[in-house]
């Protein structure tokens, strides 16, 4: 399902960004594995229409993994049973790393790092209930302090097929230095594949692989406004402006196909990122914020980029 011998590239689950349109575009332009945005197991268990829509996948998304977050074993089981009835999902990932306070308050995400016994039981519930090929986990190095080897071993003992490691603790948020050596220590300890994550970009990707000996890389925030990063990592060079424009237009068209005209509103935040640092970006953003016609919106994108 995933050829770790080729050091595949994953798109990390990114709330508000890694929706179906973006995943379909990065999949077309160099990404090997896509993962849904984080979905609450509780919401899914109660048949949330929004959650079901978030699970939808593009035709080119294989392998495709759905990430859930939760700690209530009964609701996790119900959520997995719902996923079992949906074709096209290749794996279920448990989020054990989200640092957002509202998730932590629910004892989910990175809060599971404080209770490794519960973490194992949640993963085992997924593993024992799921009819999908893969059960996986995305972790951090710990909650307040680094217990990364213990966390990774707990995931391995629970039967996961690979573990993705964000090289910070929950306390480290997104600003602390990423500890790639800690990811390397996990790789030395467990027998399952290890996916390195955290501040990885086109310039340091090969160095991270060399330092961690990881089996794959997961790209997160570096892909926002820069989805061609997957091509750059694979080919070892920057992509030209024509390729960037082609990707931006493909992204826009995918947004409209998925969301309809509402996609114009959502795509504005992407255009703000795409245009960052370019001449005339401020004027472009002001103009794009005022356009509500799909054809005029497209023309403005085409002329600016």
UniProtKB/TrEMBL annotation:
Q: Where are the transmembrane segments?
A: none
Q: Main role?
A: Catalyzes the synthesis of 5,6-dihydrouridine (D), a modified base found in the D-loop of most tRNAs, via the reduction of the C5-C6 double bond in target uridines.
Organism from which the protein derives: Campylobacter majalis
Q: What is this protein called?
A: tRNA-dihydrouridine synthase
The chemistry this enzyme catalyses reads: a 5,6-dihydrouridine in tRNA + NADP(+) = a uridine in tRNA + NADPH + H(+); a 5,6-dihydrouridine in tRNA + NAD(+) = a uridine in tRNA + NADH + H(+)
Family the UniProt entry places it in: Belongs to the dus family.
Q: What is its EC number?
A: 1.3.1.-
Keyword field contains Nuclease? no
What SUPFAM superfamilies does the database record attribute to this sequence? FMN-linked oxidoreductases
UniProt entry keywords in alphabetical sequence = Flavoprotein, FMN, NADP, Oxidoreductase, RNA-binding, tRNA processing, tRNA-binding
Gene Ontology MF annotations: oxidoreductase activity
| Gene3D superfamilies linked | Aldolase class I, Putative flavin oxidoreducatase, domain 2
Residue intervals of the DUS-like FMN-binding domain: 11-297
Question: What are the required cofactors?
Answer: FMN
**InterPro entries from the entry?**
Aldolase_TIM, DUS-like_FMN-bd, DUS_fam, tRNA-dHydroUridine_Synthase_C, tRNA_hU_synthase_CS
